[in-house]
Predict the structure.
Amino acid sequence: MAMTAMDIYKNLPKTNCKDCGFPTCLAFAMQVAAKQKALIDCPHLSDEAKDAFSDSSTPPMKLVHIGPEGDSGFEIGQETVMFRHEEKFHNHPVLAVKIAVALSDDEAKARSEGINKAVFTRVGEEIAVGMAAVEIEGLSADAAAARAKSLCETSRVPLVLMGCDPVTMGAAVGAVADKKPLIYRATPDNSEAMIKVAAENKCPLAAGAESLEKLADITQAAKGGGVEDLVLVFDGHQTARAVRDITSARRAALKKNFRPLGFPAMVDVACDDPATETVLATAFVAKYAGIIVINGLDGSELIPILTAVQNIYTDPQVPNTVEAKLCEVGDVNEDSPLLFTTNFALTYFSVEGEVERSKVPCYISVVDTEGLGVLNAYAGDKISAEMVVKTLEAQGAAEKVKHRRLVIPGLLPTFRAEIEDTSVWKEVIIGPENATGIPKFLAETWK
């Protein structure tokens, strides 16, 4: 029987400490009853309460850890909503790049090194390939074990070992069991043996079947066999069916509390066409895949997919901001240009990136606009000439430069007169409307 909010409330400390993020214990209890939070999210929950609700306190979608403990591993699952606007998505999808079985040992190592280097910075945040998908199907047990061990020793990311032969998989997993690779995959034909491999090595297991009913049978058998960390596999090349089945599984878990399907999803969209891979991978980023397997390793393919992950898995209720302060870009001095922009992260990093590209060291004053860009801040009355002047004073900008010239965004030309009349900045220069115009502006206009 499902717990009611009052059942849950009776087992809470009732201190209204707010450490769970809610104003009262009753409010938190209502969220747990609605399957939006886990009972264990209460940091002061007693052991007796945990035991009383051991099953119900677990979120309907299990949190699955893949890889070794620490920074080199990652977690997927434990999602609580169908749609991002209801709350947020918690654990972002991970991109896995294939290392084909046909590659020689040297080629496989070179590809692994390429995966290690597939790290990019966007709006101040690191985005990267998160797994290496190592094919072992067709290799002998010894060869599979040797390849898995060799790649694992130098990989910065966890491995997913891809093969359907339990004997070969057992050898490969046994060679790197301490690194907790994901075993791909159990099917109705091999599930008993694959479950045994996963249980003996205490590794997560990916399972797939032609129907959700058969998939649920495998996950229940796996749980009975001692495997708790599971990933549901869907055929990414049958896009419409995969989206339907992943959505159905997620809805069954979150809305109906059907735990045999309460696990994160995985798709393989690897193909020879980078454009097709990019489109398919991005579609599954939006439609609930926790792991997406591709072939491509070129930045032109990876960055669009990783950018989609970064955008969708931000918290829509929290502004994406940077600290409002006076920033130094390059080797600045008292003659360096002074610009200002807003504290919306995308706006700031766009400006910073173009300043770096210009090779002209600059000061950038970041004005607190509650995470809004220039035009939105102006329209929402979150920025004004007076606010800019006060920000520059608080940041001590006048003490950093000997000139009294300030570059303002080209979208705010009306600020010019007021800033000149009310501050020490007696020459206000209207800069470009778009950040991409900054290098040319600094080269031609700033003197």
User: Anything to note?
Assistant: The CA atoms of residues 5 and 30 lie 5 Å apart.
